[in-house]
Amino acid sequence: MHKLGFGLALALGAMVTLTLPARAACPDDAAIEAFLTDRAAARPTTAPVAAGGSIADALCAQTNIVARLSADLGPVVGYKAGLTSPKSQEVFGVTEPVFGTLLKGMLLEPGASVSPSEAVRALFEADLVVEIADAAVNEASTPEEVLAAIAGVRPFLELPALLVGKDEKLDGAAITAINVGAWHGVMGELIVLPQGAEGVAMLADFTARLTDDASGETLSAAPGKAVLGNPLNAVTWIAGVLKAQGKALKPGDLVSVGSIGPLHPMKPGMSVTLTYEGLPGTPKIGASFK
User: Fold this and answer.
1) Confidence class of residue 93 from pLDDT cuts 50, 70 and 90?
2) Domain 6-289 belongs to what architecture?
3) What is the pLDDT of residues 217-229, one digit of tens each?
4) DSSP track, 108-145
5) Which residues contact residue 84 at a Cβ distance below 8 angstroms, ignoring those fewer than 6 apart?
6) What pLDDT was estimated at residue 212?
7) Residues contacting 247, CB < 8 A, separation 6+
8) Mean pLDDT, the chain, as a whole number?
9) Alpha carbons 116 and 289: distance in angstroms, whole number
10) How many Å apart are CA 250 and CA 133, to the nearest integer?
């Protein structure tokens, strides 16, 4: 059995402690409104909770932001784990992942065309979505147990936006407050995986390869294990954060596991393809930027 590593367990314990809402002090309505107005206008904004703030305050801000965004973007369909690789954690000065929320209107069909001018610091990255099938996933402690409680995985080319000005510092609290930059994501069809050790190994060992369609150049290539040792560990982490908030994953929920490789700046006129080498059928998904 591939149990969660000691480092991940520590990170989960730290986040569970920080996500208890009892003492959270939300930013006021004016700060939330200013953030949302800037976001809608694609103007560089300020995180409602600045770098150095508390994760509890940041989660409270995120909850209010998501509630207001849902009026236009629809209901919550899942969650996202951000900063799930050692490199990304180093860049943003954190030692654990960050938690975000996905709304229905954020998800796009394969081949979608997106304008980077509609967001501040629009990016793209290789990601993967896990679709939950059984609430037993909330008690899972190993990748095998998670695998037994999911319907499968879906290709996911995430299109986040950092939203804030380039001079504003982002750390775990600030990134959490801006909902981990959730903006758009191109999602593909469900991929059913083998159960047991075979499926767990497949998710650790596959390669997510991003290529530029015009040149055929590989922009990045990274293994599934870049995400917390196995993308299924991101599901366990999300379940733990939700449990600390008195919530739980349910059948049909989606979990974006986080970056499988680096973030890339979105450039007008560019089109890219994300290929999952080593997953059944070698699935691909793409998007273009106008």
Assistant:
1) confident
2) Alpha-Beta Complex (3.90)
3) 999 999 999 999 9
4) E-TT-EE-GGGSTTBEEEEEEEEEE--GGGGG--SHHH
5) 97, 226, 227, 228, 234, 257, 258, 259
6) 98
7) none
8) 92
9) 7
10) 7
